[in-house]
C-alpha cells in the first residue's frame, strides 16, 4: 500500500515513461500512485538517454509528497538510502542500507540491532574480513544491507561486506575486481570444515582486496578413499595451492575453485571463458537434422550447426550416417552462446586443420594475414565471409573472377582469404585472395554459378541448392531459384507483395509475411526490402502457385507473362525468403505453405493494408485477411484517426479474438490485453449505432462486449439531451463509465455524464440506479421511452422504467413522444414497479422554434379552452375523468378511487403482486353488490385475470361504469403481459418467439425451442428455415451457440429428413463449424439412433482425416466397437493406432484401451495391457493408479491387494508413496478387516522409518 512507504524504503520500480528531466516510474501499486526519478538521481552507469521504457531498477524513496495527489520522489543512488530508526520491521525491505549496532557474537556470526527494536543476524562470511575471527572487537556500528526479511521470523538477514554495501562505488557489487571464471590463482588454505570442504584466502594485490575462495570435496585433488586426517595433512591451514576459478557467489563475495590437475590443464572450464578459435575435442551426444549436440570436458555443452558439420553441403544433409552418439570429434570454437549456455563449434576440416591466422575481432594488426573462413552469403557484388566470434568480411567479385575456374563459392564452403583492410570503428573488413594460385578457393566443381544462398549463421540450417537451372524451364514447387525483384505487386488481390521475375519469363511474388521469420513491431519490412533490393537478384523458394485473370493494360517495360500450358490464365509463383523455410528439407505444404490454422487468443504478425476511422484492415498472408476495430487499437481513446498512426505495410503483432473459417477472416486486437469491465472504472468504447425516438446508443467495448447508453445516462440535465446527442459521432471513441450489467440482454449500461468524472459539475437530474433511491410522492424528471396503446413509459434511470397513469390531456399526450422530457411524481412503488403521475412536459429542443423551453403543466392545461375541447372528444371516445365517473356511480357517497399506480412492463421487473391497487379499485366500484357480502383481501394469485372475457361476467342488472371497464381492460392487458414475460412458458405463436429472439438473437436454446415449436405442428420445412435463420443471425464468434444449432439441424434431418438431405446438412456443418467436433457429434447422433453401420462409416472417415490430429478419434472408435460387442475389432484398431501415432502417445492409448477391456471387454486382456506398460515404465504412478481402480471396480477386489504391495515397494517420492498408502488404507477399510488395516499401517510406519534413517546417514 502507498501509505506504508516511507523515506528510505527500498523497492523495485520500472520506467513508465521518459521525460525531459527524469523518468515517471511504476511502483506496481494502485493507478493513482505516482513516482518520479530525477535524471540526477539515476543509478550509477545509467543515463537518461540509455534508459528505456519497462527497464527495472532498485530505487529508494526520497520524499513521500503531501496531499491526496502526492508524488513519490525516488533515488537510484544508494548513498541516499539510509533507514531511519523509526521504521518498523514490516517496512524494512531487502536492499535497504541500515546502521547495525553489535549485540552478541556467536561462532556462526553476529547478532545486531538496526533500531526501533528490530534485530538482525550477520553471517560470519558476511562480516568485514577484519572482524571474522575477532568478532568481540566489533563494538562500533557498521553499515549493512538487508538481504532477506521473512514474515515468520522476527530476525532480519543482513550483509556487512564492504563490497556489497558499496556506498562510494556501486559497481563493486557486480564485479570481482579483475578475477574472472577460468583464471588460475594461488590461494592459501584458511579453514577445513568437518564436511571436508576447504576455504582459501586470495591475498590482496594492487588494485584488489582479499577474496574468500571455496572448494567442495569433489573439486579437490584428493583420492576418493581419503580420510579426514589425510585431508588435513594435504590442506593444512596456511599452505598455498594453485586453483582454477569455476564460478562465484556474488552475495557471499566467494569464488568457487578447483585444484584438480585435469581442470588446471583444460583450455576452458565454462562457456564464459571459452576462447573462439581454440581447437577442442567434443563427444557427440545427440544427432538431429538441425545439427549435432556435443559435450566438451564432460560438462560444457556445445552445438555444431548442420552447416558446420562438414566442408561439403552434400555431406551435411546426412548427419546420422556420419556421426554416432559417443563419437569423439575435433572441432574449433566459433563463438559463445551465453543465452543458451553453450558454445557453437565447427567441424569443417578446412577450418579445424587450418594453419592460418585466427580472426576473432576487427584488429588492424591482421592486415596482410592469411586466414580461413566460410561463406555465409553470396551476392552479385561478392561474397560475405565469416570467421570466429561472429566477425565477417567482404570479398569483392572482382577477386573471384581472376581465379581459374571462376566459380562462385557455395554457401558454407571454407575459403582462404587475405585481409586487405580493417575498419575497427564501423566493424568492416575488406578481403582478397592469396597470391599463390593453389591456395585460393577450396572450390567444389559441382557447385553452380547460380547456387542459392542465405545467411546461414542466423538460421543454422543447411539450404539445399537448386537443381532447376535450365533456362526457361517450368518452376517446380518447393525448389530454390534466383529471381529479380521488379517492384511492388500490381495485382488488386493484395497490395502487400513484392513482384519477382524468374529466368524464362515466369513471374512470382513474395508476401510481406514471407520476408523474414521475425519482425520488429511497427516496422515496414516491405518498403525496406524494396528500397534495398529493387532490380537486384534474390534467392527464394517456391511454396505454391496461384492464377489470376490478366489485366487489360500491361506495362510495356515489364517482361511478358508466361502462360500456363493448360489454360490462358497466367500462373504466378508464391515464394518465401524465410530462413526457416529455405533450410527445410521436407517438401510438405504444411511446413512451407501459408499458415491456415488460426486459433482464438493466438498472437500473429499482421500487415497493414489500409486504415480509416472505423479501424485497420490487415493481412496475415494473401489468403487470410483481418480487421482491427478502432476500439481494439493501441491507445484507442487517444487515437483520433487510425489512418494517422497505421501506415500501409507496417507490421504489428495482434491477438486473434475471432475466426471466420468460411470467409477466411480474422477479428484482431492490438490492445495489450482484454479490458476488464468493472462498475465505476472508466473504459473506452466505440459508438457503433445511434437511433432516436426512442434514444438508443450502442457501443462496443475493447473486450468485444456490447454496451448501451440511454437518455438518463447521457447528460446531467435532461433539457440538454438533444444537443448532447447531436454532438455524438458514429465510430468515435468515448470514455465511458459502466453502471450496471443488463443480464437478460447481455450488455453493459454505461454513462457519459460529466458529473461522474468531474465532481464539480452541476447536476440537475440525478442518476437513479435502483428503485430504492425513489420515494413515494417524490418529484423527479424522466425521459419518455414509449407511447402506445399499452401506455406511456418513462425512463428514470438505467433499467428503471415507470408507467404514467392516464391522467393526462390529449394535448399532453401529443407531447408525450419518445425522448420527451417530463416531470412526474412517484405515486406508488410496489415490488419494484413504479407508478407515475404527470406534472408537466418539457418540449425537446428540436421542437422549440424560439430556442426556449416551454412547460405544459396539468393545472394550466385544465383551464385552457383547447383542453376542454379535447376532453370532450376524449369522453366521446369512451374515456372519462374521475368527476364523470363519480356522477354515474350508483352510490350515495362518492369514495375517492384508488390511484392507478402505473407499472414498469420490463420483463425482468414484472410481478403479479403489483396489481393490488387495481384490485382495490375494482372492489370500490362494485356498488351493486350487497354491503353485507364479505369481500376477500386481494392477493397476487387472485389478481391474475381469468380466461373468460371480462364483458361476459357482467349481468344487465350490474351495469359497469367506464372506470370499471377500464380496469377490465387493464386486467386483460396484464394477462397478455404475463404470458410475454414468463420465460418458463413456451410461446404459443411464431410472433411470440420472434419477440423473444429479438432480445437475445445469440441464444441457441431459444432457437431450438423455436425449431421444436414447428416440429410439434409437423411443419418440418419451417423448422429447417428457422435453423438456417438462426445460423445467419447468431454472431460468428459465438461458436458454441452455432454448434448447438448445427447439432439440432442434424438431429432434425436424421429424424425427419432423407439420406440426401442429411448428407448435405452434414457437409454444410463441416464447413461452418469445427470439422472434428461436427464429426464427433454426428457419431453420437448415429449411436443414439442405433445406426451402427452409419456410425462405423463415419468413424472410419474420421480416422482417415484426423488420425494425426486427435487421439480421441482412435479412442472413440475403440469404445464404439466395445459398446457394440466387437472387442476383437477394438484390439485390431489399437494395433493400427500404435503404428500411426507417435511413440510418446503409446502409453496413453494402451492405458485407455486397457480400461475399455475392463469396462466392456475381457478383464484379462486389460490386465495384460496394463502389465505390458508397467514392465517398460514401472515408476509410472498414473498407470498404477488407474490399473488399481479398474481391478477394484470391474474385477475382484482381492486382486488389487498384490498391486498395492508391488507399488509400495518401488523407489518413489515421498508424496507419491503417501498417496498409495492412503489409497491402500481406504481400500482395506472398505474391503478388508482389522488385520489387513493394521498390516497397511505397519508397512507405512516402516517406510517412514526407512526414510528417516536414509536422511540421517546422508
UniProtKB/TrEMBL annotation:
Compartments where found: Nucleus, Nucleolus
GO-annotated biological processes: rRNA processing
The keyword Nucleotide-binding appears for this protein: no
Keyword RNA-binding tagged: no
Membrane-spanning ranges: none
Keyword line: Nucleus, Phosphoprotein, Repeat, rRNA processing, TPR repeat
GO MF annotation: an example: RNA binding
Domain annotation S1 motif: ranges: 8-77, 277-348, 368-434, 601-671
GO cellular component: small-subunit processome
Biased composition (Basic and acidic residues): 552-569, 954-967
Short name of one Pfam family: Spt6_S1
Primary localization: nucleus
Biased composition (Low complexity): 857-871
Organism domain of life: Eukaryota
Residue span of region Disordered: 549-569, 843-888, 924-967
InterPro entries xrefs: HAT, NA-bd_OB-fold, Rrp5, S1_domain, Spt6-like_S1, Suf, TPR-like_helical_dom_sf, TPR_rpt
TPR repeat start and end residues: 1111-1144
Protein name, per record: S1 motif domain-containing protein
Amino acid at each position: 500500500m502507498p501509505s506504508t512507504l516511507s523515506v528510505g524504503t527500498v523497492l523495485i520500480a520500472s520506467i513508465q515513461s521518459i521525460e525531459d528531466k527524469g523518468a515517471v516510474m511504476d511502483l506496481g501499486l494502485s493507478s493513482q500512485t505516482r513516482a518520479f526519478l530525477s535524471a540526477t538521481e539515476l543509478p550509477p552507469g545509467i543515463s537518461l538517454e540509455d534508459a528505456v521504457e519497462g527497464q527495472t531498477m532498485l530505487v529508494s524513496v526520497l520524499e513521500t509528497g503531501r496531499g491526496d495527489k502526492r508524488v513519490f520522489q525516488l533515488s537510484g543512488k544508494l548513498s541516499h538510502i539510509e533507514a531511519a530508526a523509526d521504521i518498523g520491521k514490516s517496512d524494512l525491505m531487502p536492499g535497504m542500507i541500515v546502521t547495525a549496532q553489535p549485540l552478541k557474537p556467536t561462532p556462526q556470526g553476529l547478532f545486531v540491532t538496526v533500531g526501533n527494536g528490530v534485530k538482525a543476524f550477520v553471517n560470519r562470511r558476511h562480516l568485514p574480513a577484519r572482524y571474522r575471527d575477532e568478532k568481540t572487537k566489533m563494538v562500533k556500528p557498521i553499515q549493512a544491507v538487508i538481504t532477506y526479511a521473512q514474515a515468520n521470523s522476527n530476525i532480519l538477514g543482513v550483509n556487512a561486506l564492504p563490497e556489497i554495501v558499496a556506498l562510494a562505488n556501486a559497481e563493486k557489487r557486480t564485479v570481482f575486481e579483475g578475477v574472472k571464471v577460468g583464471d588460475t590463482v594461488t590461494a592459501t588454505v584458511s579453514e577445513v570444515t568437518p564436511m571436508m570442504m576447504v576455504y582459501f584466502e586470495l591475498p590482496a594485490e594492487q588494485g584488489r582486496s582479499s577474496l574468500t575462495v571455496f572448494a567442495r570435496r569433489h573439486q579437490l585433488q584428493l583420492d576418493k578413499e581419503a580420510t579426514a586426517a589425510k585431508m588435513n595433512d594435504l590442506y593444512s591451514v596456511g599452505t598455498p595451492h594453485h586453483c582454477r576459478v569455476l564460478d562465484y557467489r556474488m552475495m557471499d563475495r566467494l569464488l568457487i575453485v578447483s585444484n584438480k590437475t585435469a581442470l588446471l590443464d583444460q583450455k576452458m572450464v565454462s562457456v564464459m571463458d571459452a576462447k573462439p578459435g581454440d581447437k577442442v575435442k567434443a563427444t557427440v551426444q545427440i544427432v538431429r537434422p538441425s545439427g549435432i549436440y556435443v559435450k566438451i570436458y564432460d560438462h560444457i555443452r556445445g552445438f555444431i550447426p548442420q552447416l558446420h558439420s562438414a566442408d561439403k553441403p552434400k555431406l551435411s544433409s546426412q548427419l546420422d550416417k556420419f556421426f554416432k552418439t559417443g563419437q569423439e570429434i575435433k572441432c574449433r570454437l566459433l563463438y559463445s552462446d551465453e543465452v543458451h549456455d553453450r558454445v557453437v563449434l565447427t567441424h569443417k576440416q578446412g577450418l579445424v586443420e587450418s594453419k592460418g591466422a585466427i580472426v576473432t575481432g576487427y584488429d588492424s594488426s591482421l592486415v596482410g594475414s592469411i586466414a580461413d573462413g566460410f561463406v555465409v552469403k553470396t551476392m552479385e557484388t561478392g561474397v560475405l565471409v565469416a570467421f570466429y566470434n561472429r566477425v565477417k568480411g567482404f570479398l569483392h567479385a572482382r577477386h573471384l573472377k581472376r581465379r581459374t575456374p571462376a566459380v562462385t563459392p557455395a554457401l558454407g564452403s571454407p575459403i582462404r582469404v587475405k585481409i586487405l583492410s580493417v575498419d575497427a570503428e564501423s566493424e568492416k573488413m575488406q578481403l582478397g585472395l592469396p597470391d599463390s594460385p593453389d591456395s585460393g578457393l577450396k572450390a567444389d566443381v559441382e557447385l553452380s554459378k547460380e547456387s542459392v544462398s542465405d545467411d546461414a549463421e542466423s538460421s543454422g540450417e543447411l539450404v539445399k541448392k537448386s537443381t532447376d537451372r535450365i533456362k526457361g524451364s517450368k518452376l517446380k514447387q518447393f525448389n530454390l531459384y534466383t529471381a529479380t525483384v521488379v517492384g511492388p505487386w500490381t495485382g488488386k488481390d493484395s497490395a502487400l507483395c513484392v513482384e519477382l521475375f524468374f529466368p524464362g519469363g515466369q513471374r512470382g511474388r513474395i508476401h510481406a509475411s514471407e520476408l523474414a521469420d521475425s519482425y520488429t513491431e511497427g516496422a515496414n519490412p516491405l518498403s525496406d526490402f524494396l528500397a534495398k533490393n529493387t532490380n537486384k537478384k534474390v534467392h527464394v523458394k517456391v511454396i505454391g502457385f496461384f492464377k489470376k485473370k490478366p489485366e487489360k493494360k500491361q506495362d510495356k517495360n515489364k517482361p511478358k507473362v508466361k502462360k500456363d500450358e493448360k489454360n490462358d490464365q497466367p500462373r504466378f509463383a508464391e515464394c518465401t525468403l524465410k530462413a526457416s523455410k529455405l533450410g527445410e528439407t521436407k517438401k510438405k505444404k504444411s511446413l512451407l505453405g501459408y499458415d491456415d490454422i488460426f486459433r482464438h487468443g493466438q498472437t500473429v504478425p499482421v500487415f497493414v493494408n489500409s486504415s480509416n476511422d472505423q479501424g485497420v484492415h490487415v493481412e496475415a498472408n494473401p489468403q487470410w485477411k483481418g480487421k482491427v476495430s478502432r476500439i481494439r487499437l493501441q491507445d484507442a481513446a487517444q487515437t483520433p484517426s487510425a489512418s494517422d498512426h497505421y501506415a500501409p505495410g507496417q507490421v504489428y503483432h495482434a491477438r486473434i479474438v475471432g475466426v471466420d473459417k468460411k470467409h477466411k477472416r480474422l477479428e484482431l486486437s492490438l490492445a495489450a490485453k482484454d479490458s476488464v469491465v468493472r462498475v465505476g472504472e472508466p473504459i473506452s468504447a466505440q459508438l457503433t449505432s445511434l437511433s432516436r425516438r426512442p434514444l438508443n446508443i450502442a457501443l462496443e467495448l475493447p473486450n468485444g462486449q456490447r454496451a448501451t447508453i440511454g437518455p438518463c445516462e447521457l447528460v446531467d440535465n435532461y433539457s440538454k439531451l438533444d444537443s448532447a446527442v447531436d454532438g455524438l459521432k458514429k465510430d468515435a471513441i468515448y470514455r465511458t463509465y459502466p453502471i450496471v450489467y443488463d443480464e437478460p440482454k447481455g450488455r453493459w449500461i454505461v454513462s457519459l455524464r460529466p458529473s461522474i468524472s468531474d465532481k464539480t459539475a452541476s447536476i440537475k437530474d440525478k442518476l437513479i440506479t435502483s428503485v430504492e433511491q425513489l420515494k413515494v410522492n417524490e418529484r423527479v424528471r424522466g425521459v419518455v421511452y414509449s407511447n402506445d396503446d399499452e401506455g406511456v413509459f418513462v425512463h428514470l434511470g438505467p433499467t428503471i422504467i415507470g408507467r404514467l397513469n392516464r391522467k393526462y390531456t390529449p394535448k399532453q399526450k401529443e407531447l408525450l413522444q419518445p425522448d420527451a422530457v417530463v416531470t412526474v411524481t412517484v405515486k406508488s412503488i410496489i415490488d419494484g414497479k413504479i407508478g407515475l403521475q404527470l406534472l408537466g412536459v418539457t418540449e425537446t429542443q428540436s421542437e422549440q422554434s424560439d430556442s426556449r423551453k416551454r412547460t405544459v403543466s396539468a393545472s394550466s392545461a385544465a383551464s385552457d379552452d383547447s383542453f376542454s375541447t379535447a376532453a370532450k372528444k376524449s369522453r366521446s371516445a369512451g374515456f372519462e375523468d374521475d368527476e364523470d365517473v363519480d356522477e354515474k356511480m350508483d352510490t350515495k357517497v362518492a369514495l375517492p378511487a384508488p390511484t392507478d399506480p402505473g407499472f414498469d412492463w420490463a420483463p425482468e421487473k414484472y410481478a403479479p403482486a403489483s396489481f393490488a391497487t387495481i384490485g382495490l379499485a375494482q372492489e370500490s366500484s362494485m356498488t351493486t353488490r350487497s354491503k353485507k357480502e364479505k369481500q376477500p383481501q386481494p392477493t397476487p394469485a387472485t389478481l391474475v385475470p381469468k380466461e373468460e372475457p371480462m364483458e361476459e361476467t357482467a349481468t344487465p342488472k350490474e351495469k359497469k361504469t367506464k372506470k370499471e371497464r377500464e380496469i377490465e381492460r387493464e386486467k386483460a392487458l396484464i394477462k397478455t403481459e404475463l404470458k410475454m414475460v414468463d420465460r418458463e412458458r413456451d410461446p404459443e405463436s411464431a410472433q411470440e418467439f420472434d419477440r423473444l429472439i429479438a432480445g437475445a438473437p445469440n441464444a441457441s436454446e431459444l432457437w431450438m425451442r423455436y425449431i421444436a415449436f414447428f416440429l410439434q405442428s409437423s411443419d418440418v420445412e419451417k423448422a429447417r428455415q428457422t435453423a438456417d435463420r438462426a445460423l445467419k443471425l447468431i454472431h460468428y464468434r459465438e461458436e458454441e451457440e452455432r454448434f448447438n444449432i448445427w447439432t439440432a439441424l442434424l438431429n432434425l434431418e436424421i429424424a425427419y429428413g432423407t439420406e440426401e438431405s442429411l448428407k448435405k446438412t452434414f457437409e454444410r456443418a463441416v464447413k461452418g463449424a469445427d470439422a472434428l467436433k461436427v464429426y464427433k457429434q454426428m457419431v453420437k447422433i448415429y449411436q443414439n439412433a442405433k445406426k451402427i453401420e452409419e456410425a462405423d462409416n463415419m468413424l472410419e472417415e474420421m480416422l482417415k482425416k484426423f488420425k494425426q490430429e486427435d487421439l480421441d478419434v482412435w479412442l472413440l472408435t475403440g469404445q464404439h466397437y466395445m459398446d457394440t460387442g466387437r472387442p476383437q475389432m477394438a484390439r485390431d484398431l489399437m494395433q493400427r493406432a500404435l503404428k500411426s501415432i507417435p511413440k510418446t502417445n503409446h502409453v496413453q492409448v494402451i492405458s485407455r484401451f486397457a480400461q475399455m477391456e475392463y469396462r466392456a471387454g475381457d478383464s484379462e486382456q486389460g490386465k495384460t495391457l496394463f502389465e505390458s506398460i508397467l514392465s517398460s515404465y514401472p515408476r509410472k504412478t498414473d498407470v498404477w493408479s488407474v490399473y488399481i481402480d479398474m481391478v477394484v471396480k470391474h474385477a475382484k477386489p482381492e486382486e488389487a491387494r498384490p498391486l498395492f504391495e508391488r507399488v509400495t515397494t518401488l523407489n518413489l517420492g515421498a508424496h507419491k508413496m503417501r498417496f498409495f498408502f492412503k489409497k491402500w488404507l481406504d481400500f482395506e477399510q472398505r474391503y478388508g478387516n482389522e488385520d489387513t488395516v493394521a498390516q497397511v499401517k505397519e508397512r507405512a510406519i516402516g517406510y517412514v522409518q526407512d526414510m528417516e534413517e536414509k536422511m540421517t546417514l546422508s
